[in-house]
Amino acid sequence: MLSYQHSYHAGNHADALKHVILGDIAAGMFNKDAPVFMLDAFASRGIYDLNAPEAQKNSEFETGIGKLWPLRHGPCPVGIKRWFALIAAENSDGSFTRLPGSTALLHAMAREADRLAACDLHPQEFDGLRMAFQASRRFSLLKRDAFEALKALLPPKEKRGLIFLDPSYEVKEEYRLIAKAVAEAHRRFATGVYVIWYPLLPAERHLDLFKELKRSGIRKILRVELDCADSFPDMQMHGSGMLIVNPPWHAEQAMQASLEWISEKLTDGKGHKHFGWLVPE
Ligand SMILES: C[S@@+](CC[C@H](N)C(=O)[O-])C[C@H]1O[C@@H](n2cnc3c(N)ncnc32)[C@H](O)[C@@H]1O
Hints:
This protein is an alpha/beta fold and 281 residues long. The protein has a single domain, classed as 3-Layer(aba) Sandwich (Rossmann fold). The protein has ten helices and ten strands. Strands 5-4-1-6-7-9-8-10 form an eight-stranded mixed β-sheet, with helices on both faces. A two-stranded antiparallel ribbon has the order 2-3. Helix 8 (174-188) links the parallel strand 6 and strand 7. Helix 1 crosses helix 4 (78-90). The chain is globular, with a radius of gyration of 17 Å. The chain binds S-adenosylmethionine. S-adenosylmethionine (SAM) is lined by residues 2, 4, 6, 18, 42-44, 101-102, 119-122, 125, 145-147, 166-168.
């Protein structure tokens, strides 16, 4: 399959929420000194060029970072400030063309003792990853199936892990497959922090993901979601969310503040947000 390319969607409303919340979670884990292993299982190319024809085709970034970037000098929560600073660092010439994706954000935030692995199976996306980053002992670039990587790389030797699952959901079974893969990984590594992104689409298949995860018996699953249907009525993907298994306690307040701010600024208060337990402790 693998026809999806994230460059067409880079920086849209879902990316804004996803990248800020991911940063809040990583920062929450970094509150303790012990090293963390991070797995960006569906990495894409790491850094997106907003001037590229793919990004310009539908200019989806105008529903996300394009709307928020002009607010970067105003008051905003800590997670948003961090995100703006990381984007600014990628554009040190003062332009605004290079948008860091999940791998670039985690790579920039990683501390000396942390380890990061990024996987993508798509040949072009993987080449992008290789061009953007230099692999090292602490940073592995893997042209490898994400589901296989979960089996092979968990549990990590650090005993602390942030596992980011951001599939393209090209096939409808993927919602159930992701839940099953998390349930299986959780059996071997129950203390890992699993972050699962999902889109809100008219078919509402994210409900399959919810159902399957609830059935798995995993506890402590936080749901952070923003529905922007009233703001972007022409977009098929009218919102997005993240399920976070074992959310770091230190990140909860930050995530809530980020969600509030993004909802207010992206949807002028018309967004429907959700912040609460899908499954409590
Ligand atoms: C939504 S994009 C990831 C975006 C990225 N996480 C970000 O936030 O910048 C999903 C990526 O997963 C890759 N992918 C899809 N199925 C995969 C699989 N089974 N194993 C590894 N990569 C896969 C696709 O090629 C695509 O680049």
